[in-house]
């Protein structure tokens, strides 16, 4: 009988140990198990958004001199193009790109790059070795008619961008500063030290793009995205850790696309100051 109890106890112990190991594995696999995250949004990469008018005037003077040599914003570039056919329309994209690698700004939503394998222009997923950042003039034509033109600066829309109809009549004009629409609202804690408080991207009079709010020590406090004036996707709040690490405080889920009907935002998860999960919504 004692042998029977010994075997039963052993089986129970092994079962409990196996369950504990399985629980630990699930915890490790759960991205919400810890609020501590790897973040490239620390102050070393904080955006400088004080626009320099004198710099723009100097660039205009040099533009004509360097265009013939494919030198744009001080860099030697190469020319490229893509070709597509949709129904009976031939679409060409003519662009310049740089072989100089640069880490894309984490604050800009759309970073344009040339995928050399697929021979196409993309706006996300850039990695060194996979392609090249667009840098310099860009032009898109449909059946040999220019429908869009502008400039890029290390993959970011820069200066004046124009849209035309099929008869080459100007339909729209926008101005950018290294990826930020010039209408964007920027608040500073201290403009003399470039200490940004809040960045609200504005285009066509509506919020459009990535939103950021910062603590006064330059650490990111809130991140999120706007589409057509509506909050979309996951908005994240962070604890102020004195720039030592990024710890999520709360995540709020908004509609995935603007103007979605019957969607109510909800808190997806919350963490304490040490990064311990304190709440997670059951889906």
DSSP E strands, number: 22
Question: Major sheet, described briefly?
Answer: 9 strands, antiparallel
The Cα radius of gyration reads 25 Å
Strand proportion = over 45%
Overall residue-averaged pLDDT value: 84
What is the helix tally? 2
Low confidence ranges: 3-27
* Tertiary shape: globular
Total number of domains: 2
Q: What is the string of helix and strand elements?
A: HEHEEEEEEEEEEEEEEEEEEEEE
Structural class: alpha+beta
Distance between the termini: 48 Å
Helix content: 10-25%
Overview of the molecule:
The protein is of the alpha+beta class and 283 residues long. It has two domains: 69-180, no CATH class; 183-283. Helix content is 15%, strand content 45%. It has two helices and 22 strands. It has helices at 2-29, 53-67, and strands at residues 36-37, 71-72, 75-76, 78-86, 89-98, 113-115, 120-122, 131-142, 145-153, 156-164, 170-177, 180-181, 185-190, 195-200, 202-203, 206-207, 209-214, 220-227, 230-238, 246-253, 266-271, 277-280. Strands 1, 13, 14, 17, 18, 19, 20, 21 and 22 form a nine-stranded antiparallel β-sheet that branches. Strands 4, 5, 6, 7, 8, 9, 10, 11 and 12 form a nine-stranded antiparallel β-sheet that branches. Strands 2-3 form a two-stranded antiparallel sheet. The chain is globular. The two termini are 48 Å apart.
């Amino acid at each position: 009988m004692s042998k029977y109890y010994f075997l039963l106890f052993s089986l129970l112990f092994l079962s409990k140990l196996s369950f504990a190991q399985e629980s630990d594995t699930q915890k490790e696999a759960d991205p919400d198990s810890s609020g501590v995250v790897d973040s490239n949004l620390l102050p070393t990469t904080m955006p400088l958004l004080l626009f320099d008018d004198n710099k723009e005037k100097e660039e205009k003077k040099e533009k004509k001199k360097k265009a013939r040599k494919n030198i744009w914003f001080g860099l030697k570039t190469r020319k490229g193009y893509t070709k597509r056919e949709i129904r009976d329309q031939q679409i060409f994209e003519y662009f310049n790109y740089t072989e100089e690698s640069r880490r894309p700004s984490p604050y800009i939503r759309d970073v344009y790059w040339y995928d050399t394998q697929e021979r196409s222009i993309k706006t996300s997923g850039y990695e060194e070795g996979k392609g090249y950042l667009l840098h310099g003039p860009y032009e898109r034509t449909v059946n040999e008619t220019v429908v869009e033109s502008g400039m890029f600066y290390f993959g970011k829309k820069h200066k004046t961008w124009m849209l035309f109809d099929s008869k080459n009549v100007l339909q729209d004009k926008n101005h950018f500063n290294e990826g930020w629409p010039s209408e964007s609202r920027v608040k500073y804690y201290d403009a003399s030290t470039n200490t940004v408080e809040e960045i609200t991207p504005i285009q066509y009079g509506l919020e459009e793009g990535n939103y950021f709010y910062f603590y006064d020590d330059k650490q990111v406090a809130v991140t999120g995205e706007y589409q057509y004036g509506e909050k979309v996707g996951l908005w994240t709040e962070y604890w102020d850790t004195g720039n030592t690490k990024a710890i999520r405080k709360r995540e709020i889920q908004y509609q995935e696309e603007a103007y979605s009907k019957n969607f109510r935002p909800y808190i997806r998860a919350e963490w304490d100051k040490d990064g311990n999960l304190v709440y997670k919504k059951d889906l």
